[in-house]
What we know:
heterodimer, A: alpha/beta, Aspartate Aminotransferase, domain 1, Aspartate Aminotransferase, domain 2, 4-stranded antiparallel beta sheet, 13 strands, 14% strand, B: alpha+beta, Sufe protein. Chain: A, 3-stranded antiparallel beta sheet, globular
Amino acid sequence: MLAAFPELAVSMIYLDYAATTPLDARVFEAMLPSLRPDGVFANPASTHGPGFKARAAVEKARVQVAALIGAEPGEIVWTSGATESNNLAIKGALEFRGSAASNMLHIVTSRTEHKCVIDTCRHLESQGIGGRAVRVTYLKPSPRGVVTPEQVLAALTPETLLVSLMWVNNEIGVVQDIDRLAPLLRERGVLLHVDAAQAAGKLPIDLQRTPVDLLSLSAHKVYGPKGIGALFVRRRPRARLNPQMHGGGHEQGMRSGTLATHQIVGMGAAFAVAQTDLETDAERIGTLRDRLWSRLQILPRIYRNGGDKNGGTEIVVAPHLLNVSFEGVEGESLRASLPELAVSSGSACSSATAEPSYVLRALGRDDEMANASLRFSIGRSTTAAEIERAAELVIQQVQWLRELSPLWAA
Amino acid sequence: MNMPSTPDFAGLDNLFGYSAPIWQRFADPSSVGRFAPETSAVLSGEAGTPAARSVLRLQFRFEAGRVADARFQAYGCPTSIAVGAWLAEWATGKSLAELRSLKLAELRAALEIGDDRAHCAVMGEDALLALLAQYPEIST
């Protein structure tokens, strides 16, 4: 029997929380006073009553963001988001330290970093810093997506100034062992930058215990507003940066520009909610994710991308992510056959020149399997019924596309 | 999370903006499958490669020099699948001379295939040519 596509969808199942999250209702409420025309509108840098009020709102948010990651408020620098934080951390640290270095500058990162880290590194490789060349080592992760602290240490040279590694991978959810890596780099005097956009609010982070020097954060991955993020810049020992945005010397001179009070208040509220709900969210979301993976098992020849808890070494995966490759189906058709699901796809959809996911390619998946992949990311509002329905739709369409294929032999 | 159902979602079943003739055949293709091996007067033609993520197989069953029935199977993007479905529809009832007269432009126009997906139409033509190349081998 060949099934036609399911009846016209009346609702959308959103399983793309790793791309972005909706505002939490509590965050929305917290932001309103600074959005109203008669609200907290003044420039937080102004030295008058309304300015002081705005400043107080900004500083309260700074405390809230710092609290979630075990930092001091004075270590939080507001930015426009994780992309800017990553740019500021990498370029800023290299420019500052590079001016004192005499040789070539070296960065260690991995092939599965977010594009904004990889692109920043490539830019530095092509431009150099202050007339000195910049060399970058892009570590290859294991087929499960892990970059070990030993691999990082083996790549260090006397010229290495900075290691940049993400805590949780945005496509596959693999958690890198930052807790073990950080002290090893501290002993060796190498700066560690961590992109924690997908980790904050998902895993406990305690920077009092983990000696990370620079850490990037985003609000909209944690049910806060888009357009606001932060960079944690350690005070003791002081991680120093050259600013990338020049101007009025805001944020201790590291990032100029009038502070966006409403966005900052929203980020603070989102991080406060995340701190309260972290454990219950992680447990509930992780259970739904495991349920989805277990329901899909009815399909033969499907593969989980990134670590799982099976096999010899336990690999930790963030609770909200599930990335699966489906053998025998083509990615664009798979995605097009699931209009009811808002999920990310590894397929090079509309562009003839786009490559399938470079993250999955770095794990050793071939183009076909990287292309035929879906990333499901589960969030605070996801229900068990949505997971059931999503599993049902995926199973139905994968079976149908396999049946349609001249290559598939069950 | 349930998103509200609004008129904007009326086109939900073709979110990705495929042409109507492509979407209609992708979403509900006819003539899918293959003939049982013992069926007589059947010719097959295949084109494409798994590496290019596109493979199309056509089968026509001939009666008195005309296509009595057609089947297709496809692995590939929605356009490739629609090309298979369209060729199976189009071929049914046609004579050898009519089958040989197919122009690539006609196939592309029928499915509104743009330049970026022209290779899908070429694969369809290749599968048809591969099938027709075997024609002298059967007697009908």
